[in-house]
Every structure is written in C-alpha cells, then in structure tokens.
Amino acid sequence: MKTSKSNLNSFRRWVIGLVGVLLIVSVAFGIPSGVAFADSSTAPTPQPQHNPVPHDYTGLQNQYRREQTLLGKQEDNLNNGASVVSKVQDLITKGQAKGLDTAALSTALATFQTQVSTAQSSHSTAANLLSSHAGFDGSGNVTDPTAAAQTVKDAGQALKDTHDVLSQAVKDLRTAISNWREANKDKLQNGDLQKAYQNEQKWLTTQQGNLTKANDVVAKIQTLISNAQAKNLDTSALSSALATFQSQLATAQASDSTAANVLSAHAGFDGSGNVTNQVAAAQTVKDANQALADAHKVLVQAVSDLQKAVQAWKTANP
C-alpha cells in the first residue's frame, strides 16, 4: 500500500520539489535589510577645517562597519550557491531518469555558475578593500579621511556589483526552472500515472493472495473450535469472533473486487498501461487506490481482532 500511495502522489511531490528549488534559489541570495551600499553620495568628502574643532567621522566609520557586515552576509550568499547548484543538478538527473529533455536546465545552470563566479570576483575586490582598510585603523576609526572615503566608496561599489550580478543570476535561474517545469508538466504527470497504475496492479495481486490466506485461517479456526467442543470447552466467544472475521473478509473482498474492476477497465490507459487520457487515467488511479486501501484497512483490522479473540480464549482456557 505504501508503495502505491507514494507513486500516486509522486507527481505532486515532484512539483513541490521544483517549487522548493525555486524557493531555495530565491532565498539563498537574499540581501540583508537595513544595509545600504556606499556610493559617491553616501561617502562624505571631508571639508577643510579652519579651527581646532574636532572632526566628526562617525558617518564614514558607520558606513565602514555596515560594509563589513554586508561582506559577511554576502559571503554566506555566495557559499549558498554551491547548495543551489547541487539541487538543480539533482533536478536535472531526475529529469533525465524520466526521459525528459534537460538541455535548457543544463544551459541555465552553466550560466548561473558563470554569474556566481563573476559575483565572487567583485566580492573578493570588496573584501580586499575592507581588509586593507586604507584610511582606517584596525578598530575602524578614521585616520585619513580622504583615503577612508575612497575605501567605503570603492568597497560599496564592489559589494553592489556583487549584489546586482547575484540578483540577475537568481532571476535567470528561477525563470529557467519555471519554464522547464511548465513545458514538462504533462510528461511528468503521465509518467507518474503510469507508474502508479503498474504498482496498483502489483498491489492487487498481493492483496488477493492475502485474502486467500485469510480464508485459510477460517478453516483453521473452525478446526480449533471443533477440537475445543470435543473437550466440552465453551467456544461461543471463538465462534462469534470467527463470524465477525468472515464478515470483515467479505467487506474486504468487495473493495478488492472494486479495485480489480477499475484496473481491468483501465479508463484513460491503453492495454499496455500508457496514458491516453490524463483526466480519466488520474481518476482510475485514484479510485483503484482508494478501493485497495479500503480492502487493506479492513483486512488488517480483521486479522488483529481475530488474533485478540483467539488469545483471550486461550488465556481463559489454558
């Protein structure tokens, strides 16, 4: 039962998996909020002073610290690129296993990797500028306002370049995955319907075997009752349990027969199990799965009830 249910819903999981990849691509390179990029307008140019009033370089120092914070977060974003590449490659592999054309995805992934490499180059430039901290001391205090202003300006531009390339890379990859998913939606669903149909046929065969075994149990319990009666033991509880078991078997058999009829009619499938009508095929798989599940549930409960009844009777009649 679990195998058939899994395949029945595998298309849904596939779609969810694709959406998951899109989501990962979206959030993996998020730019932290509250951090501004430095440019010529945010990096103040020091003005000459004609009096001994202490200079205030708070703006430059704050911008330098913000850029260091952004550098760290952007480093994490770039590291996430490896995870995204792995997940998209896995998507490609699974698509190929289903006989789908993944050329567009492979091209998009190669482009993405090139874009990430470009972004990494700009990021390294920013890292080097902030590490050299021209115009700042080791604690981030301004020692040379002109050099400090150039540092935050150049580092800010490099960080912005990194962000822009990553943003475009994410957008391009998202679009490629979405387009590929839409183009192959029907093929994916047909493949999963065919797999589910095949598995339900196997399940039907297995369950019919289980029902045959259950009928054999009836004969064994009847023999137990006859032997106990010959010893003048009270077998009313056993007889009642056996009657209930037989009723449950009849219910399970009815559901199993429904499944057999649905699969035999194979609406939406041809004689080889290939989808000819997706809507009808989906209904066939759904109805057969429900009938098989109903039969399984009743059969499991019947066996459990009978086992408990026999054990209770044996305890009462050691």
Helix/strand layout:
Layout: H1 2-8, H2 10-27, H3 58-97, H4 103-132, H5 145-183, H6 185-230, H7 236-265, H8 278-316
Helix pairs in contact: 1-6, 2-3, 2-5, 3-4, 3-5, 4-5, 6-7, 6-8, 7-8
Report the total helices: 8
Largest sheet, in brief, is: none
Unreliable segments (pLDDT under 50, ≥5 consecutive)? 1-5, 27-43
CA(first)-CA(last) distance = 38 Å
Strand content: under 5%
Number of strands: 0
Please describe what this structure looks like.
By secondary structure, the chain is mainly alpha-helical. The chain is built from eight helices and no strands. The protein has helices at residues 2-8, 10-27, 58-97, 103-132, 145-183, 185-230, 236-265, 278-316. α7 runs antiparallel to α8. 30% of the residues are buried.
